[in-house]
Amino acid sequence: MAQDKVPNITRHTLCGVQGCCPTVEINHDSDEVTIADDFGGKVKLTKEQWREARTNPMLDA
């Protein structure tokens, strides 16, 4: 996992085995987390939503 750090934004690149590299960008000024895929799709979450998604995965669903 690569990690870039620019002022007030933390960016993680999650490269998988199939060549896909989605990114997670945390904007500390706006308290927003953006998840982007290789095809231009984006999901924006609040930091609270991001925390909940990380701590309550529904892997059996």
Provide structural commentary.
This protein is mostly beta strands and 61 residues long. The protein has one helix and five strands. It has one domain. It has one helix spanning 47-55, and strands spanning 2-6, 9-13, 23-27, 32-36, 42-46. The radius of gyration is 12 Å and the shape is globular. The mean pLDDT is 84.
Task: Give the overall average pLDDT.
Answer: 84
Order of helices and strands: EEEEEH
- Summarize the amount of helix as a percent range: 10-25%
Radius of gyration: 12 Å
Our count of helices gives: 1
Tally of discrete structural domains: 1
- Helix/strand structural class: mainly beta
- Low-confidence spans: none
Strand residue content: 35-45%
Distance between the termini: 26 Å
Shape descriptor: globular
Count of strand segments: 5
For the biggest β-sheet, the strand order reads 1-2-3-4-5
What characteristics describe this protein?
61 residues; mainly beta; 5-stranded antiparallel sheet; 41% strand
Quick recap:
The chain is mainly β and 61 residues long. Helices cover 15% and strands 41% of the residues.
